[in-house]
Structure formats: structure tokens, C-alpha cells
Amino acid sequence: MNTSILSKNIQDFITLNSSESITKLALQKNPFPEVEWILILNQIEAKAKAKDKLPTWFSTQNIIYPSKISVEQTSSEKTAAYKASLIDGKSLIDLTGGFGVDDYYFAKKFKSVTHCEINEELSTIVKHNFQQLQIENCTFYAGDSAAALNDADQKWDWIYIDPSRRNDAKGKVFMLKDCLPNVPQSLDLYFEKTDAILIKTAPLLDISAGLSELKFVKNIHIIALENEVKELLFEIHKNFVGDITLKTANILKDKTETFEFALDGETQFLSYQLPQKYLYEPNSAIMKSGGFDEVSSFFKINKLHKHSHLYTSEDLIDFPGRSFEIEKTISYNKNEMKTVLLNQQANVTTRNFPETVENIRKKWKIKNGGNKYCFFTTDKNDNKIVLICRKIN
């Protein structure tokens, strides 16, 4: 860790230029010849990445950033805070500590947190940053996390793991066994040290594939931020037997949309109906969950078609996703399209439809944007239709 970048003049320069173009700055002469220019530029670029994602770090003085890739790969503060709200206890060990964002929030919930990081320089950086952030209940272990577990003569209330894909696993189907650490292979070791494990994975992991590799899964959490799925969490409790609960959360600026259901529970699916007065599109976390019949059952709303994953009702409900009032329903044919949508401006979405948004726009010369929302989809009678809507929320 190069502490020379902590000099007040350099820190002021980094802050002053955190919104400037790195490409332009790189062409300038280094005003601090005693420090490599590339180091200063890296700090500016990483800090810029942290502005929206890590506002606490961005606004705290004398923070040292690792590479911008480490900042890009770390949890955002919003998802880290949500994760920390799911579990509690006295002690937690993070086997893949990284830049420490998750541990910052875990430290607010647990009496003690152990941050393990195989990259010694990154471990040192996080230790320094936690001093600036006034986190005093975290200890740091620089080295292999398996060694940290074996060396410690203690048990923890929770083990947290965020395994990373091995470079040689590119192109393969994403499996936990292709990650470091290899969680499925190490579960027995982990359960010697804890009774509860929280595993974070990338959103592209297939949930059923994750379940096939793990045991004792109690809850699966799907976390989205502003309607983009960011991570999956597998919550494992030693010797747990029972129904697995799937919990979704879509974190928005002013609220968090949540929905949950038992993975293998009985569902009283409502029915398929032609479009009624209102249309509902589930948020991305629910879409990832696959709980489409459960949505219909819980909210008592009808599906348009088995594969459309759009819902409709006569009365407006509070729904975890986007809600629309249907102003007009037309058949997808040349005459209707020419009359209603040719050369118009609209937001176009397809669900269970044979053409792409790009092709539809090109074919019917539909400009993007405006207040009109058009859903190209299939109804319960397998007819191709277009729902012309006004967005409610």
C-alpha cells in the first residue's frame, strides 16, 4: 500500500478531479513527481466509480482505493446494508473480504467481524480504510481463508462467502464448484466452524444448479437494485430440513419491494384472462425467481398467458413492479398497426412475442420514448396482441 498518496495536497487533487475525464488527465504533466502519475490517476478513477455506489467511502477523507475493477466488483452500499439486515449474531467471518463493503455493514450488526483476504495489499488497504470509517470491531487476516478457519480455535455465528469464478471456467455453465473457494467441496469444513452460512453469488447462477450443489438451504434471496438483479444469496443452516423459502427484494430510491414464497409450496393459481383494465409487469427479482403462479395467487390477479408473465386485473393493486392502465388493446396485424402505431412515439416491450423490440421499431417506424407504453405479447388464446398503456408507477 502506497501511503504517499495520503498527503493532503494529493488527496485534495484527487477529490477536486474526481469528476474529470481520466483520458484528459492522463495527458497532463504529473503535478506530484514524487508519486507515480498512474497511482494518482487510478485513485481518481476508482473514487469516481465509488461516488454513487459507495457514497460513505466517497465522502470520507483519506480513503485508499484498490483498482477500479475491485470497486466495480464489490457490493454497493445499498445491497450490503440489505444483506446485513437479513442476519445477526455476535461473530461473523468473511472468507472473501475484498474491499470490505459487506463487512462494514456486518460490523454494525455483529459484535466482531473477521475479514479474510488472500491479497495482502488489499487486506492492508481495507484495514486502513476501516480506521478512517471508524469501524473498530473488525479484525483482518491476510492469507488463505481455509488456513484462517483451521488456525482459529473458535466457532462463528455466521460464515459469509462471496466466491469468484476461476479464470479457467470461462464459457462453462456457471457452477459453484468452478469458483474459488470451492464452497460445495468445503461445506463440511465450514460446518465445523459455524452452524450458519451465507453465500453470495452472481445473478447469472441458475437457482436449481445452486441447489443441486448445496445442502441444508433454508432461504434463497434475490436482490435487485433499481430493477437490476445484482446478487443471489443462499442461506444455509446446519442440518436444516424443511421447505426452502425464496425471498425477492427490489431496492428502489424510496422503498424496497419484497415478495416471498415456498419453493415447493402449494399454489392456488388464479386464472388466465384477456386484458382487463390494469396491467402489471413483475420486477426483475421476481422474474429471476420464477414464481409466476405464486404472484397470481398472492395478489389475486390473472395471467395473460402461461409464458407471458404479465398480469391483469379490473381493480388497481399495489404491485412489486411496474403498473399500467390499459388504454387500448389491438390485434397484431398490418391494418391495426398502421392505424394506431405507425410513425408514433412509444416505449416498446415484448413478452412472449416472436419479434424483437428492434425489429418492431424498424418495421413500424416507432420512435423511442414518450408517455405511451406498448406491450407486444400473446394472450390466453395464443393471439398476438399489443397493449397500449399509460404508466401508473
Q: What does it look like?
A:
- The chain is of the alpha/beta class and 393 residues long.
- The chain folds into 3 domains: 3-72, Arc Repressor Mutant, subunit A (Orthogonal Bundle); 74-262, Rossmann fold (3-Layer(aba) Sandwich); 278-391.
- The protein is 32% helix and 28% strand.
- The chain has 15 helices and 18 strands.
- The protein has helices at 8-16, 22-26, 37-53, 55-58, 68-73, 77-86, 101-106, 120-132, 145-151, 183-193, 207-213, 284-289, 292-299, 334-340, 357-364; strands at 91-94, 112-117, 138-142, 158-161, 164-165, 179-180, 196-201, 217-225, 228-237, 245-251, 256-262, 278-282, 302-303, 311-313, 321-331, 345-350, 367-378, 384-391.
- It has a 9-stranded mixed β-sheet with strand order 3-2-1-4-7-9-8-10-11, sandwiched between helices. The chain has a 7-stranded mixed β-sheet with strand order 13-14-12-15-18-17-16.
- β2 (112-117), α8 and β3 (138-142) form a beta-alpha-beta unit.
- The radius of gyration is 25 Å and the shape is globular.
- The model has no long low-confidence stretch (mean pLDDT 93).
Tally of distinct domains: 3
Please work out how many helical segments DSSP would assign: 15
> Fraction of residues in helices?
25-40%
pLDDT averaged residue by residue: 93
Radius of gyration: 25 Å
The CATH class of the largest domain, by name, is Alpha Beta
Index terms:
single chain, 393 residues, alpha/beta, Arc Repressor Mutant, subunit A, Rossmann fold, 3 domains, seven-stranded mixed beta sheet, 18 strands, 32% helix, 28% strand, methyltransferase activity, Thump-like, transferase, PG_1098_Fer
